[in-house]
Each structure stands twice: as structure tokens, then as C-alpha cells.
Design goal:
By secondary structure, the chain is an alpha+beta fold. Helix content is 13%, strand content 22%. The chain has a domain at 33-146.
């Protein structure tokens, strides 16, 4: 016999007269949701039991469609059905990274097998669910549940035991003689005054009406012209809603700056500002014990202790004041001594020059 299945798309039936009977297209099996089934609980959950935090028995790790979450069931007294309700309520509150709540998860407790069954709300190969919990509830090692994909069946010509084609006449009887006005084979027709429309899920929205074809004499064929120029896979016309530009033009180095944290940044003519490195600060237990050597420079001494290196702004370190002029650290006493020494050297040299000049003049006078 020939089987006919209901569906969304019109299809002329195999061996059915086009004037009296039209069927719909064959339909595959529906996709199934993911299902995770736990093992039998170690105690009878049909009786009242106490749920505690001991051994984290109230903590459950759940992953739904790749989105993981940890749920905690409040302590108290439960039976299998009430624990299933508490699990279902909290699993359906798990959110993804965008804040959307998945939902659709059902949790059932089977008193005959004393175990829990978790069923996903989505179907297909992308439907997954994984639950891990206490061994007390048979959830310590639950296999990952994965949804099934649909199986599609195509209609084929039915035959009897002798290999003869079977047909269904207008009265619904199986016959081996093709009825009049038989349409050979079967062809999906989506006709609404020549236009097809679908919703966002791919379901046809156009009125699904059968089309009447007059029987042609032998040697003649029916020519069908189908225009696909206006067909589209988009739900609505394409348009650009926003444009985000994150690029920049080329630029040259325009200068350097140092912020309070000691980061050295390079400024470019295109407005970009890129970090190049970071200054390191040194701190001493006794800063007054440092030796001043001029030019705003100090050196470590035994009194100051060894240097402790760190970043600007960290605990125990100051900040960097870029472009500021430091107070002079010149040793005034040492500089005055150096000045007096230089003055004495100058006076001695001046006296030597004066003596040399007098001697030279005396020699000149003798020769004359």
C-alpha cells in the first residue's frame, strides 16, 4: 500500500487522481531533545529525606546546550518529586553570557526506578544536557545527553507481491490499473498565484492549494515556467543599521609622555597613543643616608641600605611627576671648599705670571 504523511507542503499523491484527491508531502520523524538519565539513587527517595550541605550533596553541576552553571538546592526535607521540582526551577534560571535564560528543561522522578530524568527543551544535534551531583541521588556519573536529528522519508511507488504497481482510486481502493487522469510520479507544488512566502522558521505561509492539470494526449507534455528571480532567503530587505569604524590613518611620532604610574607613551599625529614601557622606581630604608653627588643624582651608602625596586604608585613608592624640576641636591659646603680652592689656585697662577713678567722685563732691560 502507499502511505501518505501529513506536512506543510502540498504534494500531488502517487496514483491519486488530480481531480478527486490531493495529499500533502511526506514528512520525516521529528527531532528529539537531549535526555540525561541518572542511575538509581542509593536510598529510597519516595520517603522523606533530609538534604544537607554535607559532602556538597545539595550542589549540582549542570550544562545545557554548552552553557554550564552550578545550582544549589536549599537545605531541608524533600522527597524525589519535590527535589525534581526544585532542580527544574533552578536549572531553568541558568543564563548564557548575554543574559538570556534558556528554560524548557524538565526534571522527572521515577518512583519505580528511583532515578531522575532530565529532558532538554531544544531538539536536534545541538541539544545537549549534562548533570553531575551526589551519588546519593544516582547523579555522580550521568552520561551526556544529545538530541537526535530527524530522519526524512521519501514517498515511493508501492507494488504488490508480483511487482505490479499499486494505485489508489478515487474511492480509496487499491488497484493495479492506473486511474484516469493519473499524474505520473509526484511533484511538490507551492502555488499561490505564482508567489511563495515563508516565515523565519522556513515554514510556508502561502495558501497551499492543489493545481489542476488536464490530461495530455500521448506524445505531448506540459510546460511549466517557474520564475525564481524574486526568491530570497531573507526575512526582510537588507539594510545597514549601524556602521562601527575602528580604524585609523597612518601617523608619525609626535612626542613622548610619562604618566603618574611611570608608563612611557608615544603620541602619534593620527591621535593614537601607545605604551612603550614603564619606569622602575627604587626605594631605600633610609633615604637621608643617600650620598649627594650633584646633577640630581644620589648613590647608595651603607647608611641608606640597599635599594628596593618597584612600580610607581605601588605601596611604599611614590608617583612620577613628568616635566617637573627637582630640588637641587648640591652639597653647598663641598662646593664652597672647591670654590676657595679654585680661587687660591687662580691667585697662585696669577702671582706666577706676574713674577714671570717681571723677570722677563729685567732680562730685556739688561740687554739694552
Amino acid at each position: 500500500a502507499t502511505d501518505f504523511f501529513g506536512g506543510d507542503n502540498n504534494l500531488l499523491g502517487v496514483g491519486v487522481t488530480k481531480t478527486n484527491a490531493i495529499t500533502t508531502a511526506a514528512k520525516g520523524l521529528a527531532a528529539q531533545p537531549a535526555q540525561a538519565v541518572g542511575a538509581s539513587a542509593t536510598e529510597d527517595l519516595t520517603q522523606v529525606f533530609r538534604l544537607t550541605t554535607q559532602g556538597n550533596e545539595n550542589i549540582f553541576n549542570v550544562s545545557v546546550n554548552g552553557i554550564a552553571g552550578v545550582i544549589e538546592i536549599p537545605q531541608g526535607f524533600y522527597v524525589g518529586t519535590t527535589l525534581a521540582e526544585a532542580l527544574q526551577q533552578r536549572i531553568n534560571q541558568i543564563e548564557d553570557t548575554t543574559g538570556n535564560v534558556g528554560g524548557g528543561i524538565t526534571v522527572k522522578y521515577d518512583s519505580t526506578t528511583n532515578n531522575f530524568t532530565f529532558t532538554n527543551g531544544t531538539t536536534g544535534r545541538d541539544s545537549t544536557i549534562k548533570v553531575r551531583g551526589s551519588n546519593k541521588f544516582g547523579l555522580d556519573d550521568v552520561d551526556l545527553g544529545v538530541g537526535s536529528v530527524p530522519q526524512i522519508y521519501n514517498l515511493q511507488q508501492a507494488t504488490n507481491s508480483d511487482g505490479l504497481n499499486l494505485f489508489v482510486d478515487a474511492s480509496g481502493n487499491k488497484v493495479t490499473t492506473p486511474p484516469a487522469n493519473l499524474v505520473d510520479g509526484f511533484f511538490p507544488l507551492y502555488i499561490d498565484e505564482g508567489e511563495l512566502t515563508f516565515d523565519k522558521s522556513g515554514r510556508i505561509l502561502s495558501p497551499k492549494q492543489g493545481v489542476h492539470y488536464e490530461k495530455q494526449e500521448a506524445g505531448f507534455s506540459i510546460d511549466l515556467d517557474i520564475d525564481f528571480t524574486k526568491s530570497t532567503q531573507l526575512a526582510q530587505p537588507f539594510f545597514v543599521s549601524t556602521v562601527n569604524q575602528d580604524g585609523f590613518t597612518s601617523g608619525r611620532l609626535d612626542g613622548l609622555e610619562v604618566d603618574a604610574n611611570g608608563t612611557v607613551r608615544a603620541n602619534y599625529t593620527n591621535g593614537q597613543n601607545n605604551p612603550l614601557g614603564k619606569l622602575v622606581l627604587a626605594n631605600f630604608n633610609n633615604q637621608n643616608g643617600l650620598k649627594q653627588i650633584g646633577n640630581a643624582t644620589y648613590v647608595e651608602t651603607a647608611v641608606s641600605g640597599t635599594a628596593t625596586v618597584g612600580e610607581a604608585g605601588a605601596e611604599g613608592f611614590g608617583t612620577v611627576l613628568s616635566g617637573s624640576l627637582e630640588r637641587s641636591n648640591v652639597d653647598i659646603t663641598e662646593e664652597l671648599v672647591n670654590l676657595i680652592t679654585a680661587q687660591r689656585n687662580f691667585q697662585a697662577n696669577a702671582k706666577s705670571i706676574e713674577t714671570t713678567a717681571a723677570t722677563t722685563q729685567a732680562i730685556v732691560n739688561i740687554r739694552m
